[in-house]
UniProtKB/TrEMBL annotation:
<keyword id="KW-0472">Membrane</keyword>
<keyword id="KW-1133">Transmembrane helix</keyword>
<dbReference type="InterPro" id="IPR015373">
    <property type="entry name" value="Interferon/interleukin_rcp_dom"/>
</dbReference>
<keyword id="KW-0812">Transmembrane</keyword>
<dbReference type="Pfam" id="PF01108">
    <property type="entry name" value="Tissue_fac"/>
</dbReference>
<dbReference type="Pfam" id="PF09294">
    <property type="entry name" value="Interfer-bind"/>
</dbReference>
<feature type="domain" description="Fibronectin type-III">
    <location>
        <begin position="116"/>
        <end position="213"/>
    </location>
</feature>
<feature type="transmembrane region" description="Helical">
    <location>
        <begin position="224"/>
        <end position="246"/>
    </location>
</feature>
<dbReference type="InterPro" id="IPR036116">
    <property type="entry name" value="FN3_sf"/>
</dbReference>
<dbReference type="InterPro" id="IPR003961">
    <property type="entry name" value="FN3_dom"/>
</dbReference>
<protein>
    <submittedName>
        <fullName>Interferon gamma receptor 2 isoform X2</fullName>
    </submittedName>
</protein>
<dbReference type="InterPro" id="IPR050650">
    <property type="entry name" value="Type-II_Cytokine-TF_Rcpt"/>
</dbReference>
<keyword id="KW-0675">Receptor</keyword>
<dbReference type="InterPro" id="IPR013783">
    <property type="entry name" value="Ig-like_fold"/>
</dbReference>
Length: 311
């Protein structure tokens, strides 16, 4: 931030004042005075004032006669520092023995207006049925003169980014998401002033985290119905095939029976019709192969005469 020098002093003044405001952090830093021939240590004094007030030394933190070139107004978290709604001015000077430099004054700032807001803390993402539920804490505590609004930047892992919000709650449900898909998200916190605070402080996004959604009610029902329907269909088809087999068993056997075979001699004849087929059959037919039965009739003359008498 810009600064201005006061009247000339024997000791060179500090240079390049910088104010760091991030969440609750409130730190003023500067570059040391240029070295001189005096070997005594150089110390620095920091003072502040509000609009319409006078300059004051810090009492809750030690920023008077310090050798370091920075002043932490929160004392590393032990103090609340400056209020977020008041305009504050700061000034620094160097001191070496009895010599002092001119005061270097920082222009007015309002903490809630100039702070850089970090991402929410303690982010927890719970996958649900076609949804992602996020729970988190605000970046830092604020007074009633300001409040946080949150936005969720999310995208399917291979899709385009989308934004939902603003939300005032620290629990957000991203619904109507596709089941069994991986979504990545970042959460952004924005500080909104009320009343006298009419500015938009800087803000940043949380780290990217990716999560897979679970099956919704419709998908779960489909997962159950698809195998049940497939099994039922196979059962019906099996029953229908068995019924048709019983009804048309004769035709099925006729369709699937082996066709009649042609004797080898006829196949040879069909290949070469000029071949003496009948002679070949006679040649193959040997009288020795014929089986004959012999019958002998034996008669007696006495029995023949007896037969004639009876007639």
């Amino acid at each position: 931030m810009p600064f201005r020098n006061h009247s000339f002093s024997q000791l060179a003044a500090p240079q390049h004042l910088k104010l760091h405001l991030y969440n609750n952090e409130q730190i003023l830093s500067w570059e040391p005075s240029p070295p001189s021939n005096d070997t005594r240590p150089v110390v620095y004094q920091v003072e502040f004032k509000y609009v319409g007030g006078s300059w004051h030394k810090f009492t809750e933190v030690n920023c008077t006669d310090i050798t370091v070139t920075r002043c932490d107004f929160t004392g590393g978290g032990r103090s609340k520092g400056f209020s977020g709604i008041y305009f504050v001015s700061l000034r620094v000077r160097a001191k070496q023995g009895e010599r002092t430099s001119n005061w270097v004054t920082l222009t007015w700032f309002q903490r809630y207006c100039n702070v850089t807001v970090g991402p929410p803390k303690n982010i927890l993402v719970i996958p649900g049925k076609g949804s992602l539920t996020t729970h988190f804490s605000p970046p830092f505590n604020v007074t009633k003169e300001a409040a946080f609004e949150y936005r969720v930047h999310y995208w399917e892992k291979t899709g385009a980014p989308q934004v939902r919000g603003p939300f005032k709650e620290s629990s957000i449900v991203l619904s109507n998401l596709k089941p069994f898909r991986v979504y990545c998200l970042q959460i952004e916190a924005q500080l909104i002033g009320r009343g006298k605070i009419m500015c938009q402080p800087g803000r940043s996004l949380s780290n990217v985290s990716c999560h897979e959604t679970a099956a919704d009610d419709t998908t779960g029902l489909q997962v159950i119905l698809i195998p049940v329907g497939t099994f039922s269909l196979l059962l019906v088809l099996t029953g229908a095939c068995f019924f048709l087999f019983l009804r048309y068993q004769g035709r099925v056997k006729y369709w699937f029976q082996a066709p009649p075979t042609i004797p080898g001699q006829i196949k040879e004849y069909l290949k070469d019709p000029d071949q003496p087929f009948l002679e070949a059959l006679d040649k193959d037919h040997s009288p020795k192969d014929d089986a004959w039965d012999s019958v002998s009739i034996v008669s007696s003359p006495e029995k023949e005469q007896d037969v004639l008498r009876t007639l």
